[in-house]
Amino acid sequence: MLTAGTRLGTYEIAGSLGAGGMGEVYRARDTKLDRDVAIKILPEVFASDPERLARFEREAKTLASLNHPHIAQIYGVEDSGHTHALVMELVDGEDLAARLARGPAPVAESLLIARQIADALDAAHERGIIHRDLKPANIKVAEDGTVKVLDFGLAKAIDPAGTSAADAMNSPTFASPATQLGVILGTAAYMAPEQARGKAVDKRADIWAFGCVLFEMLAGRRLFDGETTSDTLASVLTKEPDFGALPPATPPAIRTLLRRCLERDAKQRLRDIGEARITLSEPAADLVAERTGTSPRAMANTHWGRVLPWAVLASLLMVVATAVVTWRLRPAVPPAQPAIFTVTMRPQDAVIGSMGHRVTPGLSVSPDGTHLAFLAHIGTSEAIWIRPLHDVQARPLKGTGGTRGLFWSPDGASIGFFAAGKLRTIEVATEKTEILCDAPAAFGGTWGLDGTILFSPDERSPIHKVNARGGTPVQVTTLDSSRHDQAHRWPQFLPDGRHFIYMPWKDDTTLRPIQFAALDGTPPRTLFEAHSAAIVAGDYLLYVMETPSRLMARRFDPETLQLGGTPFSVLTDDNVDYNWVTGESGASAGGDVLAYTTGKFKFSRLTWLDRTGRPGAPLGEPGAYFDPRLSPDGTRLAIEKHDWSRGSGDIWTVDLARGAFSRLTSAPGFESTAIWSPDGRRVAFASDQGSAPMIYVRNASGTGTEEVLVSPPARSFPTDWSPDGRHVLFMLNGGATRKDIWSYDLLGRKAAPLLASVFDEGWATFSPDGKWVAYVSDENQQPQVYVRSFPAGEVRVQISTAGGAQPQWRRDGRELFYIAPDNALMAVAVNAAAGRIGATAPEALFTANVEQGKTIRNQYAASADGQRFLILSAVNPDASPIVAVMNWRSLIRK
């Protein structure tokens, strides 16, 4: 104990104010600034722990940044010998615990106090600071009713190794370190259930404690109590709140607020303490008016009832006059300027997946604009990475391997994502994951304020909803048969959490409507058309229009639910990305931050490599190339090349001896996945140039005209031509059973499914003798390479053992190649005889610097003898295609 007159630096101790679980508190005089302060002496354990001291000082700096009328301010840290102290604002008045010891507070007084507490919490939460130990003993109430919340964030800052058992109900229970699982941090009677279980906490723990304090003020007793700390914790975890103990005068809105604050499941709890502050305002004002006789009913027959309106009017006129003068004399505040920067990854060998090689969004800004979540390849896995925008470090989230899309919860504490055919959630702080429901091939999700998640679960699906805690999905939208809708995709909640937008999708167009709908089943209406899905950014909708790919903004009033103004370009960058096949947007917005992916880094170089991976001379200049296919005689190459400025893709042929590139197609739109006829005289390819996607054929010399070869029932991509010239294999994309392998008989002029199941099958290629077909299927949860007999398929063998894609045969049929999930080019010796086939264990030849193989795009071509491989090597693999724009609204033309 320090005695009066003791000096700590410039502070002179005047007397003791008390002691608690976080240290002894004294009144002191700041002799330098001539003011009274409170000095909190930290536990002695700090003296022998430099790391903890350093951590405390870092936290104290953050806490000192809080400057709010209802928060007791921290002035600084004082060290004197082995004594370490925190210098704080001295707050006079009794604490709320002492006030409640005399009995419950009147309803009006309770609500006024609660509103000030909520105001303090709201200000701190906006700065990312959580109290962690909110309780009546940490709340001071002055004689005039002004509230000050004490010890903000000190539970995290101090974090001592043990606690005193002298007052277990009022002293926080600590363990170290405070951020790891299994740690209890807080005061037992006011702990949130997740806090009592030792889990990491966020601002929702403060909301629970706020509910406990408000209940105690109204009811005059603690909500959770017990003889020991263990009994109290058990009560927190199991006892249902007794709302019958509330006084009858408690307004219904306050009862509802308490129920929302005291939801045991944090996901269902009130999301933001700011909502509580707003809810408390009106009932508190009404009750105070009743108590002071200033309500309309009490004033009706009084002298003040006649005089007060004129007095109020005069006061308002004075306020307006003062405001006008203040406004004219105010210093000019320059508008916030946009800041644009590229988001980089560490470690540098992480490559962010490009838009063309994913199915669902891989980029999402947190609702408050402080964090960026994105998909990235690292080693052999694709997972969710989190990057605080104020930091250069990103970290992966465990348990998110194989993710195919992600979206944030409204409070930024969790992320919804799709992986292994399921919709899942993960708590960012704890990395705890939950499986909600099936989502075989999801196309977008969004998380509402009340815990409702909207998502498109499959390739041919309307929008469904499911609770964030899991359950049975319920269909929300209905496919419009009159418009020939094939799916509804990319839902986005509007700020009210009841209305949403989405994109009706069909595969014969790239310009699609953006529709507006509601959870109550209100008939949808079309807002406008766009090439990409729209994203909600406050009171704007953002979307991409191609040629060039430009990010557009359209005003949408969340109150009137109407469009306003005309669309305009937000950015001059012509490379804002979107997936023209699926309609996926490459942009995301949260708070004042806009982030988007670009096409600038989607370039590759054609390079020959031998079986050891040693490169030869590159072929041509880098470009946006896909699907290299060698001619049967090995002298020419057919390849798809994209022109992002025109929003198109065409088939080119290359004379390998001279390195000469010649354009084969030039129609608007995209021509893709070229294959050679067995004699090398013709090239077949997919095209979207007509009213419906077709497979065309043209002379390889470029002479003549294009002719329709196959009219498939849905968008399709040719994958091989049989050696006898009779059959063309193609992958039907988005049929009744997702991706299937079909065969077209050129003699019988008939197309029929060769392999169609509930799984994805595709990328089929004939063996040189035409008796076998190698293909890829995900029937074993991950894509694997198989070989089956053609056409009956009575014999089948799995070739890859740990995942694979893009199978290709050696010209003599004695070897198969494929790309493994870690980008290794694999070789398997095969032996087919008498209707049977055998295979050796796969052998890794070298690691190919290509994108992952879960796509229709082949990334290599094998020479006839299997000794060389023409690889599409990624250019600038470490370059990040994510761009972030701070204060993006300043780019909007008013």
Work out the strand percent. Answer: 35-45%
Helix count?
A: 11
CATH-defined superfamily of the largest domain: Transferase(Phosphotransferase) domain 1
CATH topology of the largest domain: Transferase(Phosphotransferase), domain 1
Helix content: 10-25%
Q: Kindly provide the name of the CATH class of the largest domain.
A: Mainly Alpha
Q: What order do the helices and strands come in, and which of them pair?
A:
Elements lengths: L6 E2 L2 E10 L2 E8 L4 E7 L8 H15 L9 E7 L2 E7 L4 E2 H6 L5 H20 L12 E3 L5 E3 L4 H5 L34 H4 L6 H17 L9 H10 L13 H10 L11 H20 L3 H4 L3 H27 L9 E5 L7 E2 L10 E3 L5 E8 L2 E8 L6 E2 L9 E3 L5 E6 L2 E6 L5 E6 L6 E3 L4 E4 L8 E4 L6 E2 L11 E7 L5 E7 L6 E7 L6 E6 L4 E3 L2 E6 L4 E8 L4 E8 L17 E4 L2 E5 L6 E7 L4 E16 L5 E8 L4 E8 L4 E4 L7 E6 L5 E6 L6 E6 L7 E4 L5 E6 L5 E9 L2 E8 L4 E6 L5 E6 L5 E6 L6 E6 L6 E3 L6 E5 L5 E5 L4 E10 L2 E4 L3 E5 L12 E3 L5 E7 L7 E5 L8
Helix pairs in contact: 3-6, 3-9, 6-8
3D architecture notes:
With 894 residues, this protein is an alpha+beta fold. The protein folds into four domains: 7-292, Transferase(Phosphotransferase) domain 1 (Transferase(Phosphotransferase), domain 1, Orthogonal Bundle); 299-328; 339-601 and 880-891, TolB, C-terminal domain (Neuraminidase), CATH 2.120.10; 604-874, Neuraminidase. The protein is built from eleven helices and 58 strands. The strands form 13 sheets. A seven-stranded antiparallel sheet has the order 38-37-36-35-34-57-56, with no helix packed on it. Strand 20 and strand 21 (452-455) form a beta hairpin. The longest helix is centred in the middle third of the chain and has 27 residues, at 303-329. The chain is elongated, with a radius of gyration of 33 Å. It starts with 6 loop residues before the first strand and ends in an 8-residue tail after the last strand.
